[in-house]
Amino acid sequence: MSARQPRFNQEVLLDTTPLPDDIPKVAEIGASSAPLLSAAYFIGARCKPYNDDYMVCKTESNGRGELDCLKEGRKVTRCAASVISDINNSCLTEFRKHWACLEQNNQQLWQCRRPERKLNACVFEKINLEKTIPGTPAGEIPVHLRERQIYSNNP
């Protein structure tokens, strides 16, 4: 057996080094996983160009993407925050019902199709963003638009 006594560090380490001035400042979104999952497709719809720019930057930076692509990452964060803000201002009741359902059902989208339909309709009507699932086969009804769900506790 080892004679050395184990030492555990229970302190939280914070990096207080300020970011360079050429990187734009942006506040954190401040949402947990359920609201982010609820708004994910709308964020994807509006922020696709920013997401694509960030992914191209990370691919081209050869492992230094976190450092070299901070500007692009900040644009993605700012765009996502604007989508969350717009949904909160326009469809707060539907948004809360949907993410509360997700939180109570282990983040499973198929358990929350009813509140999701109401949220999708509200967001499309008031913000003009539509939920589209990438990679859905042509000519097939997307899973969130089907009248009868295959996996569902509610008919």
Structure report:
There is one protein chain. The protein has 4 helices and no strands. The protein is 52% helix and 0% strand. The N and C termini lie far apart (61 Å). With 155 residues, it is mainly alpha-helical.
List the helices and strands and how they pair.
Elements: H1 33-60, H2 65-68, H3 70-104, H4 113-126
Number of helices: 4
Tell me the total number of β-strands.
0
Shape descriptor reads globular
How large a portion of the residues is in β-strands, by DSSP E? under 5%
Structural class of the helices, strands and pairings? mainly alpha
Catalogue the unreliable spans.
none
Helix content: 40-55%
Give the biggest sheet.
Answer: none
Distance between the termini: 61 Å
Task: Give the mean pLDDT.
Answer: 83
Which H/E pattern describes the elements?
HHHH
| CA gyration radius, whole angstroms | 20 Å
